[in-house]
Amino acid sequence: MDSFEKLKILGQASKYDMCGCGRPNEDDYIKNGIYRVHTPDGICSIFKVLLTNKCHRDCAYCVNRFENNTERTSFTPEELAKVFMEVRRRHSIQGLFLSSAIDKNPDSDMSSLIDTAKILRTRYNFKGYIHMKVMPGASRAAIEEASKVANRLSLNIEVPSERYMERLTRAKRFGEILNGMSEIKRLKDKGIRVSQTTQFIVGAAGESDREIVDEAYRLKREFNLARVYFSAFRPVEGTPMEGKEPTPLMREYRLYQVDFLFSQYGFKPEDLSYEKDGNLPMDKDPKYVFALNHPEIYPVEINTADYNLLLLVPGIGPVSAKRILERRVKDPYHSIDELKGTGTVLKRARPFITINGKSFTEENKPKQLSFI
Ligand code: SF4
């Protein structure tokens, strides 16, 4: 099998790992390991590939688990570095996401990933972005070596506790993933410039949104994570979970909204409300639910509220809150239409604000219940 035939298999096999913002759309997989990635700075292309899809582990959701009947192959580090440079010569690619199944043992597979990155850095003088997956169970020495060649390292936590991990695999341990994350944090604290992310598979093990949210919040703070990704479970043919219902994409979307409320709006886990089953409401966004559950805060007066209070209004975000403050210093607001230029989503904000004491709830009551 030549290198580009291998690439067809190992490029596609990497699609279950997140490396940009949120789930890639179906058309975000372009070809031969090239993925379109949505970042806060816009859309870019990244080369995502597995070094091997040969795996001796048994993760019940995974296309690469040892019992699954799928075509198997591997690159050598030399081969993969050469393929990457060739793909980069032909296409505009901003970086590389380097991952692997576990063929031999965590350190041996890490060593091949590190060798690939070293060849790129030294022989090909590649100075661009490299995101490298850390194998659960990798040693301290292997993680330290990886941190010298990669810009970002990640271990996928997948589930919120050991109890759920045991439902998905006998081979991975929740504790060994936490140990790896802790090691990356230690290296960062020592001054090594490497960032860290993780990913949850949503709905694979019967866990609730509340459990995912609480654990994601804790991990982000404890290990200083740059991002947490959420990937709705999708059944893969030939695996023990092929008959399980896929997780609705809206569940994944709500978790990203919550993560955004934590990072941009100063929300905390105790500010959220859940359904009886512990999941976030699917039909209302979490900020709107917060507003409905806190009538003591609303309506918010646009001409006097401080930045943090403005941020609690559905339809007002960090940018629009700043614009409102800037404008009202010189020129207080007189009508709701004057908010149009700030980026405020008026139909969302209307029931929750006043301007000089004037409320806008009554005139829009029918819409209030349908804008979510
Ligand atoms: S370790 Fe588990 S998730 Fe990773 S490739 Fe192997 S079976 Fe898949």
3D structure, described in words:
The chain is elongated and about 70 Å long. The chain has helices spanning 3-12, 77-90, 106-122, 140-149, 162-168, 174-189, 209-222, 249-265, 286-293, 307-311, 318-330, 346-349, 365-368; strands at 29-31, 34-39, 42-50, 95-99, 129-133, 152-154, 195-202, 227-232, 300-301, 353-355, 358-359. 37% of the residues lie in helices and 14% in strands. Helix 4 (140-149) crosses helix 6. It has an 8-stranded mixed β-sheet. A 3-stranded mixed β-sheet has the order 9-10-11, with no helix packed on it. The protein is an alpha/beta fold and 372 residues long. The longest helix is centred in the first third of the chain and has 17 residues, at 106-122. The chain folds into 2 domains: 3-271, TIM Barrel, CATH 3.20.20; 294-368, Photosystem II 12 kDa extrinsic protein (DNA polymerase, domain 1, Orthogonal Bundle), CATH 1.10.150. Strand 10 (353-355) and strand 11 (358-359) form a beta hairpin. Iron/sulfur cluster is lined by residues 55, 57, 59, 62, 64-65, 101-102. InterPro entries: Aldolase_TIM, DNA_rSAM_put, Elp3/MiaA/NifB-like_rSAM, Endo/Exo/Phosphatase_dom_1, rSAM, rSAM_sf, RuvA_2-like.
